Structures are given as C-alpha cells and as structure tokens.
Amino acid sequence: MDLVPERIGKWLVGPGRGILVLESDEEVLRLKLLDDTRKELASTQIRASDYSSASIDDFLQSHGFTRDGVDIGIRLSSEKIFARKLTLPGEARGSIDEIVAEDLTRKTPFRLNDVYHGIAVRQVEGADKLSVWQWVTRRKFVEDDVAPFAIDPESVAFADSVVRDEVNSPFPFIPLRPHASTRMSLLQKSALALGCSAVFLALLAGGLKYSQQQEAMDDLDARIAAARPKAQQVRSAVEKIEKNRSTLARIRLQKSEMPGLLDVWEETTRVLPSHSWLTELRLTEVPEKNDQLVAMTGFSAEATNLVGLIDRSPMFADASLTSPVALDPIEGRERFALQAKLRKSGPFKEAAR
C-alpha cells in the first residue's frame, strides 16, 4: 500500500525536466522537445525568415514547458565533430577525464581552450580494459550554430549529433557546462518537506516514545563521532590508491609505441602528391591485435597509384583500397577510400632520421 497516491507524489516532486534540441541549416530552424529519457515529445521547424526570439517560448508553452524547465542543446552535423576511440587499462577508471584530455592535447593539433569535448566509456568484455569514445568540436562551430536562434550561448548545456562513429558506438554527446539540477518551486519544496516529516513522525509514533527516540539519537551521534576519524583515514587511503592508479595509467599511456594522430597527419601530408587531397582522415585502434588502422578518403588525379605510395612510407603498411575508385564529375578527380596499418613509432622515427 502506497503512503502517498501517485498523482500527489508527481505533484510534490514536480514534472520531469525536459530537453530542447536546436538544429539549423541555411533556411530552416528545427526545435525538438524530448523528455528526461530522451524520448521525443514534439518537434517543429520554422523558416529562418519567420523565426523570432519568442518562437522557442511559444513552442515550449504549447507543450506545457518553460525555458527554466528544460536543458537546451545544439545538434551539430557530423563534419563538425571529430571522433576517436581509445583503449585504456582498467586501472585508469578513476582518472579517465584527465588522461583523455592530456592525450588529446599531446596527440592531436587541438587545444583545450579552443574546443569542447565529451567522452563515453564502456568495459571491454572479458578483459580489464576500457573502451573510450571521445568527441571534439570547435567552440566556433557551436557559437555559429547557436547564433540563428538568438539565445544566450551560455544557456546551451550540450552539443550532440545523430551520426554514430561506428555501428555499436554511442551517439556523440558533448557537455558544454555542468548540468543544471532540476528545480522545484518553493511551494513544492515546502509540501515535499512537510509530507516527508509527517510520514517520518507517523512511523516513529507507532513503536517508540519520545524519550526512547532521544536516547537512540544521542547514542547514534556518539557512534558517528567515534567512527568519523576512522572513516577519514579510510577515505585518505582510498584517495592515495586512486592517485597511484592514475599515475600508473598515465605512465603506461606515455610509453605507448604507436604514433599519434599528429604523426599520421604529418606523414600523410608528406607522402601524398600535390594532385591529391583528403576529405577524411580517421585513426582507429584494434585492441585485440594491438594495431592501429588509418583510413583515408579523398580525391586524386591518379588514385590507383596511391596504394604504392602509402605502402612505401616507413609509417604505413598493408595499404589497400576499401572501395572502388570512381570519377567525381564535380571535383574532376577520382574519389578513393583506402586504409593501412601503422608501424610502431620506433622504426618509423629511425627511418625518418
């Protein structure tokens, strides 16, 4: 038997916090309203010429929400999000944010002050390893996409995309600032506090007298005071262990022999002839084989000759086309897609000397 009816409980706690996703292209602005489980509740699209600063409020109010009751996000196109995947040892579990941010600065041309980034972590099945997806977007991309909506950029809580990096990978999600907690009105807070107090007093009144309650509380306070120093010692020990694990994980990461994305970028620029250029360069780790694969997509006047050029590089090996070469009538070049394995950075650096 429920102590509080469901409809009363919902009124006391208040409605779930909504999510408003904004998406723009050259002529149309789209608004999507989701519930707190990211299930779509409603959507609309407005021509850019008809949009005004009140359009968002009108849309939210028509579905029982206000700006204070939603978290606002901007949806970016896939070409504005750089994605990569890392595999970390299980010991890094407590310091993933710091490790991934350090690795981003060390192995890519991005600078943390110029970008937003977010991660998702999954346990590798059958191994004490972690798969980490990281998504990066430039701050300018977010500012440009938010501008048509005529809202304060500081009110935007996240950026996302509906295009996955891999079939089973998470959808890209990049927090832009700490998530605002759900807010309740003063009346709801007061009613909830009174309701909880009434239930608590009713339960105690059934079995204990006031003097027994006070005695039990005094005894509990004494036990808490006695246990507090021990709890602080345990917490200090745990923090020390976590710090040691974080240091060990950083050392293991720094000792990696595989070249980084910046190395791949520089070598690809050196190898490709002037009549060829890339539209996509992707670096992917293959943990079970301890390998890294680089995928290249682009245009070339002589695409079939690129496999030999890539194979002769001291950084790449086993280069091959992954799709047929086709002539692009717009670019006037052959479209190609190829991939190659990366050699260890040691042999590459010796060969480069």
Average pLDDT over all residues:
83
Largest sheet: 6 strands, mixed
* Estimated structural class: alpha+beta
Number of helices: 9
Number of strand elements: 14
Rounded radius of gyration (Å): 28 Å
Proportion of residues in helical segments: 25-40%
Strand order of the largest sheet: 3-2-1-4-8-9
List the uncertain runs.
Answer: 6-13, 180-189, 349-353
In N-to-C order, the SSE pattern is HEEEHEEHEEHEEHHHEEHEEEH
CATH topology of the domain at 261-352: Alpha-Beta Plaits
Overall geometry = flat
Strand content: 25-35%
- CATH architecture label name of the domain at 261-352: 2-Layer Sandwich
Give the end-to-end Cα distance, rounded to a whole number of Å. 78 Å
CATH class of the domain at 261-352: Alpha Beta
Describe the structure.
This protein has 353 residues and is an alpha+beta fold. Among the domains are: 1-15 and 184-201, no CATH class; 261-352, Alpha-Beta Plaits. The chain has helices spanning 6-13, 55-61, 96-107, 139-146, 186-205, 210-254, 261-271, 306-311, 345-352, and strands spanning 18-24, 28-34, 40-47, 70-75, 82-89, 115-123, 129-138, 156-160, 173-175, 276-286, 291-300, 316-321, 326-328, 333-342. Strand 2 (28-34) and strand 3 form a beta hairpin. The N and C termini lie far apart (78 Å). Mean pLDDT is 83; it is low at 6-13, 180-189 and 349-353.
